[in-house]
Design a protein that fits this description.
Organism: Marinoscillum furvescens DSM 4134
GO molecular function, one term: DNA binding
CATH class of the largest domain: Alpha Beta
Family: Belongs to the type-I restriction system S methylase family.
Strand order of the largest sheet: 4-11-8-9
CATH superfamily of the largest domain: DNA methylase specificity domains
Number of strands: 27
Helix content: 25-40%
Low-confidence stretches: 455-472
Mean pLDDT: 88
Oligomer: single chain
Pfam family, one: Methylase_S
Strand content: 15-25%
Protein name: Type I restriction enzyme S subunit
Distance between the termini: 30 Å
CATH architecture of the largest domain: Alpha-Beta Complex
């Protein structure tokens, strides 16, 4: 952060991770900066009301998400969310410590926090709550001292420790100026990230178009075509067959939640794959649950094998799928993930490509919504229609897709790395500002054009990946 000056003088604190702070700042306990720190209540859910339940999923992704909002008819005053409250995800693994500044006021609704969300509020105007939000958002390690085991042995942030957390505390006008600075810079960074994400979506569409063409038309543009007799397949090469999934698989079935639920999860052990672990481009083990070998062996019917295709069959990620390679090792799945085990009539990766293509995804959505049910059942899956080329042609199609999409994947990877660097920069900028390592008191918003990091990204329409190269 060499672009910004430091404060003229500093003083030591007794806080190891904080070190020195500006001479005129204080180090204060959170309970002395705000007058309300409390968890919400367990809701009494109803089909609809004017009281919306705020749970960790509503904000833990970094944006406000009401796609799965639920309602309650119960109000407990300590759970009512006020505008500019700081929300803190306080239990669980992957979202523990995630923060959000609540600005979603609506005159026709009340928002009520559930028991997994902590509300932090100062109603006396002693602090700028944006400053509290930015501080708590910078690095989860700063609040590690607040972690404990709850009554159900669930990892949680306990409020009695949170209240005693020490924070740097500049004078209120300076808090506001720091918050204004960070609001401005974060808006620029978010704009940059949005542009980059648009580029990624364009590239993914190009990749998907290559896959769709290959798995429905093959590689020979002059091949003789025939009517498949299936609406979403249309015309297919004359020498291809139409097969239902049940005739080219040995197994279609999902797992179950282990007896005891999350209480049987362990820090080490066999991966229990859930829907959040299955993505179109990978099996992500960064937030995987684990079970001990005895639990794994008691769930024999849902043990995962090499060359299985795993497909999410419920929830917001329904239809996402990927295939199992020899690098995964032993694993199991819960009831939200379906194991599809192919016969030797279809190559595993080819099956994955078909299921992830428009042909496969159209059937996912048809059976979910056209059938009037939530999620996919096994009978639906067994009746999926696939256009099946001979094995040697399947192999050729796989190789061609790999070649045609490799440059696209490289471009996506490059952009994602750039986005990660910008996110790291944002975290460092926030940390340096709220801990007094940089002095932004003389900053003015008209300095936008002087920012060291360019916040302009190419329009998505101008960023094209061709089949024989990249134009950027």
């Amino acid at each position: 952060m060499s672009r910004y000056p430091v404060y003229p003088t500093y003083k030591p604190t007794s806080i190891d991770w904080l070190g020195d702070i500006p001479e005129h700042w204080k180090a204060r306990r959170l309970r002395n900066m705000v007058d309300f720190i409390s968890r919400g209540e367990t809701p009494n859910y109803v089909d609809h009301s004017n009281k919306k339940v705020v749970n960790q999923a509503t904000f833990s992704k970094g944006y406000w998400d009401e796609s799965s909002i639920r309602y309650t008819d119960k109000i407990v005053s300590r759970g009512v969310v006020n505008q500019f409250d700081v929300l803190l995800a306080s239990t669980g693994g992957g979202v523990l410590g995630k923060t959000f500044l609540f600005e979603q006021y609506h005159p026709n609704f009340l928002y009520v926090a559930d028991s997994h969300v902590t509300l932090i509020r100062d109603s006396k105007g002693r602090v700028d709550q944006r400053f509290i939000y930015y501080f708590l958002s910078i690095n989860f390690s700063l609040i590690e001292v607040t972690i404990g085991q709850g009554a159900t042995n669930q990892t949680e942030i306990q409020s009695r420790f949170l209240k005693n957390l020490k924070l740097p505390s500049p004078p209120l006008p300076e808090q506001t100026h720091i918050a204004n600075f960070l609001d401005h810079k974060c808006r620029l960074i978010d704009k940059f990230l949005d542009k980059k994400q648009q580029l990624i979506e364009v590239l993914k569409e190009q990749k998907q178009a290559i896959i769709n063409q290959a798995v429905t038309r093959g590689l020979d543009p002059n091949v003789k075509m025939k009517d498949s007799g299936v609406a979403w397949l249309g015309k297919i090469p004359a020498h291809w067959e139409v097969k239902k999934l049940k005739f080219i698989t040995k197994k279609i079935g999902s797992g179950v939640t282990p007896k005891g639920g999350a209480s049987v999860y362990t820090n080490d052990g066999i991966p229990l794959l859930r829907s959040q672990n299955i993505h179109f481009d990978r099996i992500d083990l960064s937030d995987v649950a684990r079970i001990n070998p005895s639990v794994h062996n008691s769930m024999k019917g849902s043990k995962v094998k090499e060359n299985d295709v795993l497909l999410n069959i419920t929830g917001g990620s329904i239809g996402r799928c990927f295939f199992v390679t020899d690098t995964l090792g032993e694993a199991n799945v819960n009831q939200h993930v379906c194991i599809i085990r192919p016969t030797n009539h279809i190559i595993t990766k080819y099956l994955y490509l078909v299921l992830s293509s428009n042909v496969g995804q159209k059937q996912v959505w048809f059976y979910q919504y056209g059938g009037g049910r939530e999620g996919l059942n096994f009978q639906n899956l067994k009746n999926f229609d696939l256009a099946l080329p001979p094995l040697d042609e399947q192999e050729a199609i796989i190789n061609n897709i790999d070649t045609e999409t490799s440059q696209i994947e490289q471009a996506i990877s490059r952009i994602e790395k750039e986005m990660e660097l910008i996110k790291d920069y944002r975290q460092i900028l926030i940390s340096e500002a709220v801990t007094g390592k940089i002095d932004v008191r003389n900053w003015r918003s008209n300095e936008e054009s002087e920012d060291q990091i360019s916040m302009a990204a190419e329009p998505a329409a101008d960023y094209q990946v061709k089949r024989n190269g990249i134009d950027a």
